[in-house]
Design goal:
By secondary structure, the protein is α/β, with parallel strands linked by helices. Helices cover 39% and strands 21% of the residues. The protein has six helices and nine strands. The strands form three sheets. The protein has a five-stranded parallel β-sheet with strand order 3-6-7-8-9. Strands 1-2 form a two-stranded antiparallel ribbon. Strands 4-5 form a two-stranded antiparallel sheet. Strand 7 (115-119), helix 4 and strand 8 (139-143) form a beta-alpha-beta unit. Helix 4 runs parallel beside helix 5.
Length: 183
């Protein structure tokens, strides 16, 4: 609309932007875009950034179990209707059994050449894991009301996306507002 001011156009543009901003996770061949959608249901429109799949690995698993699961993951890779179908992410769960076990899991997962989600609420363990894999730009999941500052510092220092958790939607909202207040 040529008769609208630049401020009005900027305000309208912001108001009609997707609720979830597009984020980029992973690096190189494992880079993926998430979010940026304006529809709720698949039948309304083609998804801008398609659904991605993850398999969970845990630091409580033995090395043999982890190796077997990664081998199975690599077997699922095919093309369907012009789209490659495979497991894009490895969700790495920290079971509270020490930083060494979790870092060993992260190292094994890095060799699988998939994007990573580090699910860890212990900021010190998360920092140790990020030191190993920050170049791969994982998602660091596990920020909550008790560790918000430390997890934010770890994610910011590594330049990765931070996932926020909470007991309910209100707590998640409060945690996100607190993070936004910190920039």
């Amino acid at each position: 609309c040529p008769h609208m001011s630049a401020d009005a156009l900027a305000s309208l543009s912001e108001a009609t932007a997707p609720l979830m901003k597009t984020i980029t996770v992973g690096a190189g061949a494992t880079e993926h875009k998430l979010g940026g959608e304006t529809v709720l249901f698949r039948h309304e429109k083609t998804l801008v950034n398609r659904n991605l799949f993850a398999v969970t690995l845990c630091s409580c698993m033995s090395a043999d179990e982890i190796d077997a699961k990664i081998a199975e993951i690599k077997k699922v890779d095919y093309e369907r209707i012009g789209e490659r179908e495979y497991v894009e992410f490895l969700f790495l769960n920290y079971a509270g059994n020490g930083a060494d076990a979790y870092v060993a899991l992260v190292n094994k997962a890095m060799a699988a050449e998939r994007a990573l989600v580090l699910n860890c609420a212990d900021a010190d363990v998360a920092k140790a894991a990020l030191d190993v894999c920050k170049a791969a730009k994982p998602i660091l999941n596990g920020a909550n009301k008790d560790n918000l500052d430390a997890m934010n510092a770890d994610a910011t220092a590594a330049g990765v996306t931070l996932g926020v958790t909470g007991a309910d939607i209100s707590e998640i909202y409060d945690n996100i507002k607190a993070l936004e207040g910190k920039g």
